[in-house]
Amino acid sequence: MAPTLGNPKNTIEILNKYSFVFQKKYGQNFLIDTRVLEKIIDAAEITKEDFVLEIGPGIGTMTQYLAEAAGHVTAVEIDRNLIPILEDTLSGYDNVTILNEDVLKVDIRRLAEEQNGGRPIKVVANLPYYITTPIIMGLFESHVPLESITVMVQKEVADRMQVGPGTKDYGALSLAVQYYARPYLVANVPPNCFMPRPKVGSAVIRLTRYEKPPVETTDEKRMFRIIRASFNQRRKTLVNGLGNSLEVQASRDDVTAALRQMGLPAAVRGETLTLEQFAQLSNLLKEA
Ligand code: SAM
After folding, report:
1. Which residue, by CA, sits nearest to atom 17 of ligand 1?
2. Which of 75, 175, 193, 215 stands the most exposed, by the fewest C-beta atoms within 10 Å?
């Protein structure tokens, strides 16, 4: 069965059939460009062996493409008004499960265990932009068995995921993503590929999960507490920012000594440290 959605005419037809009203609070911007959809599916490298989790299927546009390519697709949609539409647009596929849930409340690790025997899953989505970071961080931090995440996000967020130290976009999200995965920008996508058009530019990014993180830390949670505290007070030096942070519990002297051991000046700011240096700092502060 060929996908029927993914163009403006059929999208409008199905929306009218069900008198669907867009809910702004759910970040609903549906894809209406087949080339973009094909690009996402290609980048995700979906095969019939794959179990795919789709977050926010909308009216089922991308779900149809995923169902064609994958072994099984489970799609989690919060808006109950979309459920009858999805039952209609996906009626030709027997390898799709729809869950009417808030994805942030779903135990995805358990879902992967129950539906895919704990084997790594692929996540593919045109994400609701208002919860991009909690979704991505939730997937990584709860150690969901993952092969890759291929998602449409706000262009600016895709930039933040890829950059290194010394740029204005560099921050806690860059470091977290790059600790868990290798980012690859698939495509920039303009607002006219969606209905309704979003106010911001978008981009498709693929995050391929590392089997082993690229740096070694004796305490992952502690390293991320240090990273967060460093960027919470971006303009402060690390000695001032971390030395005052309740989360980190290190004294100014501990931080100064650790930085000296790393060969860094006492006035250094977090935004100049690499992931490797944050791992090293975390290990030294733990010893202190
Ligand atoms: N996949 C569709 C497409 O590409 O046309 C729709 C993408 S739209 C950007 C985001 C979708 O996520 C909407 O269908 C929205 O209702 C859904 N959504 C928003 N918040 C959600 C949540 N917390 N849990 C699950 N789905 C959510």
Report:
1. 56
2. 215
